[in-house]
Amino acid sequence: MKILIVGLLRLLSGILENMTDNISFFQKHLSTAKENINLLINYLLLLYAFAMPLNISKAQDITYILVALWIVSFDYKIVLAFIKKNRLFQTILLLSFLIFVSFLWSDLDKKIITNTHLYYANAYDYIFRYSVFFLLPIIIIITKLKKEFIPLFINSFLLGMFVNEVMAYGIFFEFWTTHKGIPSNPIVFHKNHITYSAFVGFTVLLLLYKINHIKSIYFKIIYSFFIITMTINLFMSQGRTGQFSFFITGTLLILIYFRKNIRALFLSFFILTTVFLLGFYNMSTFNLRVNQAIKSVENVIQGKNLGSSFGTRIMAFDTIPYLINKENFLFGVGMGDKPHHISTTLKEEYPNRIMNFDTHGFLHNSHLEMLVSNGLIGIILYLFIFYLLFKMPIKDPFMKYMAYSLGIYYLCVGMTTDIFFFKAIMSLFAIFLAVIILQHQLEENTN
């Protein structure tokens, strides 16, 4: 009996030893597999950054693959670390939660007047768009993008914009034709001039930093050429969103960086003013759009033709007392009911009848639409994102510059359109927000 017990114990010991070896073998290979998946995710993120300026639908397809790989290689510790430590990421999650939950107090049975805004009334459609083009890219980038891939990620985006620009110039000079884009408005890959000009303006801001801080003469020449052609491209398009946002952002960046250097301050202002004057007197499209804006302002002052493109954006501020009341002041009318509320309320109560408000329920202002849809809480969370961008302590000078640029630029973009309406504009905001969050976290971890 004793011999039998000893034998069983030895057998059990052998089985346990074998199991331990097998578990160690499995853990080792599982760890290797996760590392390979993470590496694959990083290369796909480079492809995503390259594809986004060219084809947002292709970028969307890449997002699906990234989400699947992210789930397979999920590491809750990394996610929890960002949630616990990063206030900017916390704010984005809180705002996203509020936006999604706001569909609960939206009357989704109401018929939205135009197909343009049908997705607002469908909780699934809006949550899908917002998640795929804003929230999910942020989560994937901050949890998976490796430190050494950050410069490659930004350069991949710039490369995509370079290809975009080559195609635009080809159409402008009539070297080739495409199913989209004409010489007077050479937009090839983007849905409209609003998204295109937003991309071009922000790209020029990134390049301006790079040319001032790169040592290689070869790359200085390349970046100089890229900046000149891209700036001309900005004025070639009909998109005042990028032009306006670029001018305001450039002006404020000059004040931030050169406020103690009077010579550099005046020189920078002189260059910026000269660029816009050259664009105004030499680019017929830009000249026409500026004159239209001036005429729109005059019409608003005189109280006539208020419904022009520029006039609509000015009059949007005048509508807020009619759209906000004590019942929806705190949490808004809900994201799903926003266009219907704007349309019906202004059609019935607003004295200045403007077709864009009546028919589309669209204020062309991200800040005001956030206030209407999600109330005081929503606008506080939304603006707190920008506040944190400006205040976030980042040691890397390029990333700090990017945080300033992105915050100011998107505050301006938000004054001309709804940031969370256009897929491409959402995605552009998301990827650079994510890179800034990641950089801050990396610096915090090294302290």
Describe the structure.
By secondary structure, the chain is mostly helical. 39% of the residues are buried. The mean pLDDT is 84.
What is the topology?
Layout lengths: L1 H50 L4 H17 L3 H10 L1 H15 L16 H4 L1 H22 L5 H23 L20 H21 L3 H20 L3 H19 L3 H21 L1 H19 L6 H7 L4 H4 L14 H12 L5 H6 L5 H26 L5 H17 L9 H24 L1
Which short descriptors sum up this protein?
447 residues, 19 helices, 75% helix, mainly alpha
What gross morphology would you assign?
globular
How many whole angstroms does the radius of gyration measure? 26 Å
Q: What count of helical segments does DSSP give?
A: 19
Helix and strand content put the structural class at mainly alpha
Précis, in short:
By secondary structure, this protein is an all-alpha fold.
